[in-house]
């Protein structure tokens, strides 16, 4: 005799980046570790870029000094493209390359990242940002010329403009994050334009930096501000880099839910490497699971 065929719902999958982790696996250390490394890459590339572009110790910095708007725009472009570099590392392709607590919070409020994983991502981002800045500071002891340049740029620290009310830098961080999150979510939800998502940050900050960077430094990213502040000791009104971006992320998701901009439905908490339906891809073959899933649906 053959055993009766079992009926019922299929076993629950672990899909943390779709906001549906398996109840027996609430922690996803692989995602957190990859996000930490991706954020480290962001900060390494970003701090080096800003240092080269702004200090008087480099030919580029000296050439750009008489042109502050161009200098600020290029800082935004290259720091934004540092996020692109981080996204396309194997680590960023696994974690989805949020590399920012405000982006992770937005995905969580949109129902695509659970609270436990949100805490894991934010912790990983903070650690990654600090690790990168400390590594660059340590490099200054080995290469004194680099140390002089990095200190002159304050490790790309974001500092509110001191001659206006702190509410202006706070508002700048809030509005900037609203626009950034709306752009990311709109691109990530678009079936044909989602491939642009990891590239958009550079163009976004290229356009925004000349307008508002003088007010707050245009961070929109608590981790990005925390690492340099820790090493450079720049804590002036630092609270705006937590409150402003987090409020901006929440407001952006509220706008999306209101349908003021039409229907925007983000499927996965990813800025890169879509198509895994919230599953964790392989580190060394990050597209394998997505391709296998596509073949299963044919």
TrEMBL record:
It comes from the Bacteria. Residues 1-10 have a biased composition (Polar residues). Pfam families: MIP. Keywords: Membrane, Transmembrane, Transmembrane helix, Transport. Its main location: membrane. It is found in: Membrane. The chain crosses the membrane at residues 36-57, 69-91, 127-146, 166-189, 196-217, 237-256. The keyword Cell inner membrane does not apply. The keyword Transmembrane helix applies. InterPro entries: Aquaporin-like, Aquaporin_transptr, MIP. Residues 1-20 are annotated as: Disordered. It is a multi-pass membrane protein. Signal peptide: none annotated. Belongs to the MIP/aquaporin (TC 1.A.8) family. PANTHER family: AQUAPORIN TRANSPORTER (PTHR19139), MIP17260P (PTHR19139:SF199). This is Porin. The lineage of its organism: Bacteria, Pseudomonadati, Pseudomonadota, Alphaproteobacteria, Acetobacterales.
């Amino acid at each position: 005799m053959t055993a009766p065929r079992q009926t019922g719902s299929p076993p629950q999958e672990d899909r943390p980046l779709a906001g549906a982790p398996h109840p027996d696996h609430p922690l996803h250390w692989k995602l957190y570790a990859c996000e930490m490394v991706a954020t480290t890459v962001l900060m390494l590339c970003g701090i080096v870029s800003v240092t080269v572009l702004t200090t008087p110790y480099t030919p580029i910095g000296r050439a750009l000094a008489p042109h502050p708007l161009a200098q600020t725009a290029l800082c935004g472009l290259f720091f934004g493209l540092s996020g692109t570099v981080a996204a396309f590392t194997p680590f960023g392709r696994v974690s989805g390359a949020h590399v920012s607590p405000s982006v992770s919070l937005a995905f969580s409020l949109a129902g695509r990242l659970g609270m436990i994983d949100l805490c894991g991502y934010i912790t990983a981002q903070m650690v990654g940002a600090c690790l990168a800045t400390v590594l660059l500071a340590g490099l200054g002891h080995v290469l004194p010329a680099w140390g002089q340049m990095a200190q002159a740029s304050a490790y790309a620290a974001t500092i509110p403009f001191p001659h206006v009310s702190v509410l202006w830098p706070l508002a700048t961080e809030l509005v900037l994050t609203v626009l950034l999150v709306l752009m990311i979510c709109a691109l990530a939800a678009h079936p044909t334009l989602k491939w642009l998502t990891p590239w958009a940050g550079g163009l976004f900050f290229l356009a925004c930096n000349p307008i508002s960077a003088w007010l707050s430094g245009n961070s929109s990213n608590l981790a990005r501000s925390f690492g340099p502040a820790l090493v450079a000791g720049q804590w002036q009104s630092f609270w705006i880099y937590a409150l402003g971006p987090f409020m901006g992320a929440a407001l952006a998701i509220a706008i999306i839910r209101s349908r003021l901009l039409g229907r925007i439905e983000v499927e996965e908490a990813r800025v890169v490497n879509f198509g895994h339906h919230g599953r964790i891809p392989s580190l060394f073959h990050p597209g394998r699971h997505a391709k296998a899933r596509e073949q299963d649906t044919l």
